[in-house]
Amino acid sequence: MFGWFTKKKEQKNEETIHNSMNTIRDTIETLEKKERLLEKNCEAEQAKAREFIQEKNRTAAAACLKKKKQYEQQIERLQQQKTNLEAQISQIEQSTLDVEVLKAQQIGAKALKSAHGGLTVEDIEKKVDEFSDTMATANDISRALSQNVSGGEMFDEDELEAELEGLQDQLDADDLGKIQQLTVTKTTITNTADGTKTQVTTKKARKMTEEEEELARMEAELLA
Asked: Backbone phi, then psi, for 180, in 5-degree steps?
């Protein structure tokens, strides 16, 4: 009768552990989805910052980059939380294995006691105490890994300014590539000293019109 209750208790403990691990894994999956969403938000703010730089609106571009930094900090916190949860799963698995090992050791101890009669109650209690200490240490580690690691949002203004300058330099380089020199050929007919006529070809450079610049921009985008 006592063995039946013990078995039922063990089954309940196993179900509790299994359900707990499933809950943790579901939470990790939720964190990963949130992380992917934040990464998309970072890319969107980066693109908007580039557009504002093109429009010479550095204030709006800086605001976009600050939002991007906020998203990046949220991603870092999510990654740390995910790491904490993954560590908990590993600890639960290890603790479960420790319990199985202890059960095996207890079975072995009983077999040795039956065979040799050398084991005492004090020896068994010592092993139980050692296991209790191990479980307490595991719980302390789990609590430490589960601590809130979130902090205040901080921005490096120099880093932000450097990123703005980088976007400006990149756009300036793109604009220089669009300013090309077109050559116009002009042919004239002149009289030589002996009365014959000859053709003289001259070339001059002119700057691209707005329409030609637009065509060049479209061509560059197609080749990109």
From this structure: -115, 160
- Global confidence as pTM: 0.46
Query: Which conformational region is residue 117 in: left (phi greater than 0), alpha (psi within -120 to 50 degrees), or beta?
Result: left
CA 150 from chain centre, in angstroms, equals: 16
Cα 63 from Cα 55, distance rounded (Å): 14
The two three-digit tokens of residue 98, written as one number: 């420790």
* pLDDT tens track for 155-203: 678 888 888 888 888 887 776 665 544 444 444 444 555 555 554 444 4
Q: Which of 31, 101, 41 minimizes the C-alpha distance to 69?
A: 41
CA distances from 30 to 24, 35, 54, 57 (A): 10, 9, 37, 37
